[in-house]
Amino acid sequence: VRERLLASMRAEDLSTRLAAIESAGVVHDAGLAEPLFEGTRDAHVSLRRAAITALAACDEELAASRAIELLRDAEPSVRIAAARVLAQHRHAAAPDALAAALESSED
Fold first, then answer.
1. Quick check: helix, strand or coil at residue 75?
2. d(CA 104, CA 83)
3. Is the four-CA dihedral 67, 70, 72, 77 of positive or negative sign?
4. pLDDT tens for residues 44-95?
5. What are phi and psi of 33, to 5 degrees?
6. In angstroms, what CA-CA distances link 71 with 30, 62, 68?
7. DSSP assigned state of 98
8. Does residue 42 register a pLDDT over 80?
9. Which of 9, 25, 45, 49 could make an S-S bridge to 20, C-beta 3.0–4.6 Å?
10. CA angle, 43 as apex, 75 and 9 as ends, to 5°?
């Protein structure tokens, strides 16, 4: 399953990549954490959003550290997905990171 998902995550077709990322979140395979982390850097908003959510299912610590960074993403829906990851997994850094993100959004 992992190899098939990895291949699909590298596909040219956006919908194939998105489906693979979403499926990776259901599989909960820690071996998919690094490709999902890379997905959080994708130019496509839908892929970044799906990747941070799926990453949380595979590696909570890696997802939390990346989610903190994504609180500054240019796209509001990615910031919301990152905030949800932090809140759902009750990461210790979540309160301070979320408060800082709210304060910076008021500027």
1. coil
2. 14
3. negative
4. 999 999 999 999 999 999 999 999 999 999 999 999 999 999 988 777 777 7
5. -60, -45
6. 23, 15, 5
7. H
8. yes
9. 9
10. 120
Q: Output DSSP code: residue 31.
A: G
φ/ψ of residue 48, rounded to 5: -60, -45
Nearest C-alpha neighbor of 93 from the set 49, 56, 61: 61
CA–CA dist 107, 18 (Å, integer):
33
How far apart are alpha carbons 35 and 42 in whole angstroms? 11
- The Cβ of residue 71 has, within 10 Å, a number of other Cβ atoms equal to 21
Instruction: Report d(CA 90, CA 104) in Å as an integer.
Output: 21
As given in the structure block, the two tokens for residue 13 are 């077709």
Helical spans, DSSP H, in 10-93: 14-27, 33-39, 45-58, 60-70, 76-88
